[in-house]
Amino acid sequence: MTFFWQLLLTGVATGALYALMSMGFVLVYRATSVVNFAIGEFLLVGGYVTFTLAHFLPLPLAMLGALPVAFLVGVGVERAFVRPLIGRSVVAVIMATIGLALTLDGAAQLVWGPDQKYLSGSLPPVLLTFGELILPPRAFWSLAISLPVALGLIYFLQKSRWGVLIRAVSESEVAALAMGIPAPRIVTAVWGLSAALAAVGGALLAGLSGVGPHLVQLGLMVFPVTILGGLESVGGALVAGLIVGVAEALSKGYLEAYLPGISEAIPFVIVLIVVLVRPYGLFGRRDIERV
C-alpha cells in the first residue's frame, strides 16, 4: 500500500506541472478561440532563457528573469502572427501556430544547439518524508511552485479587475468592445501570460534536470489535459492535470513492466473514454447554437 501512496504523491506533483501549462493554453483559447500548438515551444523558451541567465545570476533569479522574457515573446507572437489572421479561417490560424512552433523549435536549436544543457547550479535538494512516504526534490519543487501558481491564477481570474476583464473578453469580444473594454490589449496580455505560465514549467525543469529539445514532447501533454478538463475551464485544467499526472504515475508503477509505453499512452486513452461520454470535457461548457 505504501507503494501506491508513493506513486499517488509523485503523480500529484507531476500533474500540478501539467495543469500549469494547460492553464496557459486554456486562457488563449478562451480569449481568442485559437488552438495554440506552440505551447511546448513556450516551455522551451523558459528553459533556455533560464539556462542563459543562470550564467550570470543565481538560479532562482534566473528562473524569475525568464518569465518577463517569455511574456514578451508571447506578446510578440500575438502581434506578429495571430492578430493579422483575425477573421481568417480556423485552418489558417492552426497552420500558423504549427508553423510558429516549428520556427521557435528550429531557432532554439540554432542558438543553443540540439544537445542537452545542464545548469551549473540547481535548486536545493529538499527531501520530505511522511512516515514511509518520500517526496523527492523534483516532485517537491514541482508541487511547491506549480500548485501555488495555478491556484493564484484561478484567484486572479475570479477576483482581480484584470481577471474580470479577461473573462469578459472570453465571453464575447464584440460585447466587451461595446462596453469600452480594450479587448485587443487584453488579448495581447493573455498571450503573454500564457507564454509566462509555460515558461514557469520550462524554468522549473531546467533547474531540476537541464533543458533540451525533449521539453517540447512534455508540452504535448497539454493537449490531453486541456481536452479532459474542458477547453474553456481554467479550474478544469487543474483537476485534469492532477488526474493525468496520477494516472501516468500509477500506470508507470503497475503496468509499465507488462505493457511498455503504457504510461505515455494512458492520458490519451483516458481522454478518448471521457470525450465519448462528454465531448466538451469534464468541466467544459455545452454551447447550444441556433443554425
TrEMBL record:
Keywords: Amino-acid transport, Cell membrane, Membrane, Transmembrane, Transmembrane helix, Transport. This is Amino acid/amide ABC transporter membrane protein 1, HAAT family. One of its GO terms (cellular component) is plasma membrane. GO terms for biological process: amino acid transport. The lineage of its organism: Bacteria, Thermotogati, Deinococcota, Deinococci, Thermales. It comes from the Bacteria. Belongs to the binding-protein-dependent transport system permease family. LivHM subfamily. It comes from Oceanithermus profundus (strain DSM 14977 / NBRC 100410 / VKM B-2274 / 506). It holds the Pfam family BPD_transp_2. CDD domains: TM_PBP1_LivH_like. It is a multi-pass membrane protein.
